Amino acid sequence: MQTYETLLAAVTTPDGGSSVTDPATDELIGLAPERGSADLDRAVAVARTAQPGWEALGHEERSRLLNAAADAVDASAEALAQLISREQGKPLNGPGSRFEAGGVSAWLRTAAATPLEPERVLDDESGQATLHYRAAGVVGAIGPWNWPALIAAWQFAPALRMGNTVVMKPSEHTPLSVLALAAIVNQVLPDGVLTVLPGDRDLGAAMAAHPEFGKLMFTGSTRTGRAIVRSSAGHLPRLTLELGGNDPGIVLPDADPAAIAEDLFWGAFINTGQTCAALKRLYVHETIHDDVVDALAAVAARMPMGPGTSEASLLGPLTTADQFRIVDKLVEQAKADGGRLVIGGNPDRGAPGNFYPATLVTDLPLDASLVVEEQFGPALPIMAYTDLDEAIAQANALDAGLGASVWSGDVERATRVAARIEAGTVWVNKHGTVHPMVPFGGVKGSGYGLEFGVEGLKAVAVPQVIAT
Question: Is position 308 within any domain?
Fold first, then answer.
């Protein structure tokens, strides 16, 4: 079991690294190592050497080791959660850093337990054919800063289960959380199976162009995802790209505003809005628009915001100063566009930390910047609609399709509406909930490829048909 102090000491360098600061206080946490292209070449060579032996262990032994890794995470979960809160900013409690550390363990155990048997696809007088899934080789994974440890586990757990080795680059904003997770699980994994290389965007670009990766996984912006496609085209690795979202929600006129308000709030404001599949624009039928706005504002007003390490906080700061500026600019533009600030806005711009209050904006035109651009922060635009077909058209109008939601007292009606929305996942009477057995991925500008469950295992493998 690790303490926060021992974990921090294990992943920081005394000098010569990049500064990592607490987004709640602007105080230095520590220096993260910085790696470059030569380090990448060495790490890939080590991973390539280790991969055949790791694959040869077989599913049963790899699963045993993944469960042992989950045990190690559980033993050091509080130290990992403390580090996540200090580095990324999310609170310890609620859907925060303790939730994130627990999710790491859950995804490791699910990857270990999910069966993936050969599929007999032909068996008749013409012959037999069986579909198998083999390791892709060395997997390169590039992660984001919003859920650094959890999304790292989403990437490396299935990849390792399928017999691949993994070289991973965390976001330059949150390297310590991923280095700490690797330090924990590498207590039980063989050498060379999982390597974390902290570095800047140049390192990420070098990974995308590296010819030795059989598979690349990326979670982040659509712009960077497109750059990865271009850079990797020369050697054609398989790709899983979970990219930006601008998730719509549609509230039908039969919904109960008081009953759905808290779930709506957390659908939008989990991790202070810094979640790819968070609810980012809400269309509410005009007959209940005001009631929904009032109910949401009441929930927002009672949610405490403060440093992630405070046991009282349920909302934390934005992770980076740049993200604070993006949210602030979009809200100010929304006010200039005629939007009505129901609650929030007006941050203390001179105070320490990247705190932006939970903000609700109504009376916006449909083409307002806060509606059509992904804010990735705690500012939710709420638009009234009269015609459901028009609301669905607005939900589908953008080049984003990660998630969406429909809210109604009639689940069957909501399900019919959900089928008309262009998104990889459409939730009914909830938003953004993911499960390690339920496939997850986007369409349109939100990327392609599936993660989680059986489909997630297949996505980090190479199909092979043996026909007789």
Answer: yes
